[in-house]
Design a protein that fits this description.
The structure holds 2 protein chains of 2 kinds. By secondary structure, chain A is an all-alpha fold. Chain A is built from 1 helix and no strands. Chain A is rod-shaped. Chain B is an all-alpha fold. In chain B, helix 1 packs across helix 6, helix 3 packs antiparallel against helix 4 and helix 6 (151-180) packs antiparallel against helix 12 (280-308). Classes of the chains: A mainly alpha, B mainly alpha. At the A-B interface, helix 1 of A face helix 1, helix 6, helix 7, helix 12 and helix 14 of B.
Chain lengths: 43, 442
């Protein structure tokens, strides 16, 4: 009996959604560094 | 035959193996929360004072001991229970991990309620640490068996989940504490409880969908190469494996790779502030960025190892890693902040890659027969490095500062030392040879 495609989609979404949230929060957190980087590099 | 038994997890014909990586990731992204424990340090150090620490409050150092106990228990439990995990199958192991890890979070909540630090050590450290060990090895060894054609990618996916656990656990902890904080509470008690509930759901989901392949299973449409056929026949039991020089060489490889990574991770925030005079907010952003490199490296480098071979990819980690470490002080001397971020990010990506590639390396050398149990014993190298590494780095930096070295240059010696450790790791890696047939199971 073949695995139904919807099971694969649900299973992957269950891990991709929280992981994406974590990546999003880390990206937001790293923003101050990008804002500061050009200024510091020009010193 | 109950729901948790290994026999009940054997996949039926037609089962799609791509359903197994989400099961492994679901478990790993929960226990990976341990990497985000630092967000609880300050709040737990002011449970009585709430707005600021007061006499009777725990110190941050004392709170940090719970993290060290957890990492020590991770290695010990993985080593002691590895054979049980192999015998019992991944579903039972993940459920056992759920009870230990989430139960540990529950006890941590009680520790905050009654302000008893021993409960935090018992819950988050001891019990939670056992959960980490059980939950770490079971999904990895299962995935290795499902992907004989891409073992590096398989272990990379699972262990990327562990890295992702920090990205989820840290902001989740912070947001929950903010939500539950009040004039009389830092919100940690409720945060621990909610996290225990959420993680229990995710781990139960992973346990429910995880499957092991049938003994005669082969990937659809894939013709096994001669190397894969010979690896499938390779069986080295854990009791023999850990007596081989290959095991101890890989133990050194992992220990040195982790120690070197901690050279950056353990002091990332103060290092960038001292070396480039960035603001604390930008330094926090730098730490967040390193986490992303760590996450990506786990999957990408480990997947690449399927093409380069495991020995080859570790040579890259060690040679390129050492060169990057030696270059970091140069970026500070010339004020190249962007280059500094890029180089250290690459170092951390290879640190993550080292974690993710090691189970595939073990599979190459010892076969899949008891690879989980062998991996469990090898993880003691990580525990050792995670406890000793930060101490080493802190003491060297403190000694340099005390000796009057300018703050921007206090890290140089540590960076050069880490490059040296990587070169020792390179030698260990180059000494690895196939395991002698006398250790193979006949």
């Amino acid at each position: 009996m073949k695995t139904a495609p919807y099971k694969l989609i649900i299973a992957w979404m269950a891990v991709i959604v929280p992981l994406s949230w974590g990546v999003y929060k880390s990206t937001i957190k790293s923003r101050p560094l990008f804002l500061q980087a050009p200024a510091a590099a020009n010193k | 035959m109950n729901f948790l038994s290994r026999e009940r997890t054997i996949a039926p014909p037609g089962f799609n193996r791509w359903l197994v990586p989400p099961a492994a990731i679901a478990a790993h992204m929960c226990i990976g929360q341990v990497y985000g424990f630092s967000v609880f340090k300050k709040p737990l150090a002011k449970i009585l004072g709430v707005t600021s620490p007061m006499p009777g409050d725990w110190s941050e150092a004392n709170v940090g001991v719970a993290y060290s106990i957890a990492l020590a228990m991770l290695g010990l439990s993985a080593a002691f229970f590895g054979k049980w995990v192999e015998r019992s199958g991944p579903r039972k192991a993940i459920i056992a991990s759920l009870f230990c890890f989430c139960g540990g979070l529950g006890l941590s909540s009680l520790a905050v309620q009654f302000h008893q630090i021993w409960l935090l050590y018992l819950g988050y450290g001891f019990l939670g640490g056992i959960g980490l060990g059980l939950g770490y090895i079971a999904p990895v060894s299962t995935l290795v068996k499902w992907f004989p054609d891409r073992p590096g990618m398989a272990t990379g996916m699972a262990i990327m989940g562990f890295g992702g656990g920090a990205l989820i656990g840290a902001p989740l902890g912070e947001e929950l504490m903010q939500r539950f904080a009040s004039a009389t509470s830092v919100g940690a008690k409720e945060a621990f409880l909610v996290m225990a509930g959420l993680y229990a759901i995710s781990m139960a989901f992973g346990a429910a969908i995880v499957r092991v392949p049938a003994a005669d299973w082969k990937p659809d449409g894939h013709i096994l190469t001669a190397k894969e056929v010979s690896n499938a026949a390779l069986k080295v039991p854990v009791d023999s494996a850990w007596k081989t020089p290959q095991f101890w060489l890989l133990w050194m490889v992992l220990c040195l790779n982790v120690t070197a990574g901690i050279g950056i991770l353990g002091q990332a925030s103060p290092m960038i502030q001292d070396m480039f005079k960035v603001t604390p907010a930008a330094a926090a952003g730098y730490v967040g960025l390193l986490s992303l490199f760590n996450l990506g490296g786990r999957f990408l480098w480990s997947s690449l190892s399927d093409y380069t071979g495991r020995k080859g990819i570790y040579c890259v980690y060690f040679i390129v890693g050492a060169a990057l470490y030696l270059s970091v002080p140069w970026t500070q001397q010339h004020g190249y902040l962007t280059l500094f971020v890029l180089l250290t990010g690459l170092i951390i990506s290879m640190y993550g890659g080292g974690f993710a590639t090691i189970p595939a390396y073990l599979r190459d050398l010892f076969g899949t027969y008891q690879v989980g149990a062998i991996h469990g014993r090898l993880i003691t190298a990580w525990s050792m490095a995670a406890i000793v590494g930060p101490q080493l780095v802190d003491r060297i930096s403190a000694a340099k500062k005390a000796a009057g070295v300018p703050p921007a240059e206090t890290y140089n010696f540590t960076l050069y030392l880490m490059a040296g450790l990587l070169l020792v790791g390179l030698v260990c890696n180059l000494l690895v040879r196939p395991v002698a047939t006398k250790h193979h199971l006949s």
